[in-house]
Amino acid sequence: MTIDDAQRDASVPDESVRVRRVPERASYDRDTIDPIIDACFVAHVGTVRDGVPVVIPMFAVRADDHVLLHGAPASGTPRRGGGATICATFTLLGGLVLARSALHHSMNYRSVVVIGEAVEVTDPVEKTAALDRFTEALAMGRLEHLRPMTEKEMRGTSVLRLPLSNASAKCRSGWPVDDEAGEALPIWAGVVPIRQVLDEPESDPKNLDGVDVPEHVTALVR
How many structural domains is the chain composed of? Predict the structure, then answer.
C-alpha cells in the first residue's frame, strides 16, 4: 500500500498510526482495538522532555471513545502530556514462535498504538467518575467496599484523557513462517503459548480479625 493509497483508504485514521511493516496484520476498526485495550492494565506512554523522547508505563483504562491515564501531578508525564500530543501503546503477548532458523523466530501478539492530544481531566465530577473507573477495572464491585476518597487524595492524582480517534492495531497469530528449505530440516518448530492468569488472593497480614476475602475478589480468580 502506497502513501497515496493509505490517504484514500478511509479505514486509516492518519498517517501517524498507519502500519507500514506487514500491513496485512493491521486493523483500524474499534471492534479490534477496544478489546486489546480492555485486556491491558498498562499503557506505555511517550512524551518529549527537553527534546528527548521518554516512555513511561501508566495505569490505563478505556472509557468509551477515550483512554484514561492515571498518574501523579508531580510526575513528568502528566505535566508534559496535558494539552500535548502523546503516544500510548498496548501489547498482549500470546506466544513465543520458534522457527527452524533464527531469522524466522517471532512472537504472537496483539497490540495497539494511539496518538493524539491528551487533555487533563479537571472537572471534579468527571475526575471522580474516571478514578472510580480505574478502581472498578481492577476488581468489579470493589468501590462499594471502600471508604470515600479524600480531597487530598483527589488532588494527588492526575487523569489524562486521550481520544481513540487516531489508533491502529497490529496482530500476529499462528505458526512459524519458514522457507521451504527450512521446513525440510529435522528441526522442531512450533509455538509456546503465553498466558496471564490471576492466582489465589493473598490477604494482608494487617487485616482485622474476621475480615475474609470478599466475593468480588474471589470472583476474579474464577
Answer: 1
